[in-house]
Amino acid sequence: MGEAKEITKIIIKGSSGYCAYSEAYKDRLTIEKEKISYEYLPEEETKINPVRKWNYTTNSPLYQTLYERIIKMLPEYLCKDPMELVMDIGGIEITVIYSDKTRYKQEYMVTGDYFRDLFVEIRHMIPETEYMPAVLLLTEDFQEEREE
């Protein structure tokens, strides 16, 4: 019997979907055992919609605990058939890379709320000095914007 494959990297990509060109974007969050990075690329960079890139490397036990929790949660989402929604939204693509370099990739045409529990855990990994990655936004994030 072979060794169990370990997840070494999770890549979560998002996009704006149907909207004005000036608001369109693609983003990518990469999570590894000791590193997290993010890239936000607007189709048209402006003063209020700039390119954003950051990455952090850490050996924090808290980060490691969150990472392990997320790794345990992933199969629940990767093994079930995604409920496809036909809306003016961009897809959420999740790629998992294993220790033997194999990959699993799936695109989901759903809102971030489909991944609520998983995304809430991942959001705890985002440094407070950074904007929340667009791909991790949930319905309540948009409701809070409207109330302000």
Structural overview:
This protein is α+β, with helices and mostly antiparallel strands and 148 residues long. It has three helices and six strands, in the order E-E-E-E-H-E-E-H-H. It has a single domain, classed as Mago nashi protein. The protein has helices at 61-78, 116-123, 139-147, and strands at 7-15, 25-32, 35-42, 52-57, 92-98, 103-108. Strands 4-3-2-1-5-6 form a six-stranded antiparallel beta sheet, covered by helices on one side. It is globular and about 50 Å long. The chain starts with 6 loop residues before the first strand and ends with a helix. The mean pLDDT is 88.
State the gist of this model:
This protein has helices at residues 61-78, 116-123, 139-147; strands spanning 7-15, 25-32, 35-42, 52-57, 92-98, 103-108. It is α+β, with helices and mostly antiparallel strands and 148 residues long. It has a six-stranded antiparallel β-sheet with strand order 4-3-2-1-5-6, covered by helices on one side.
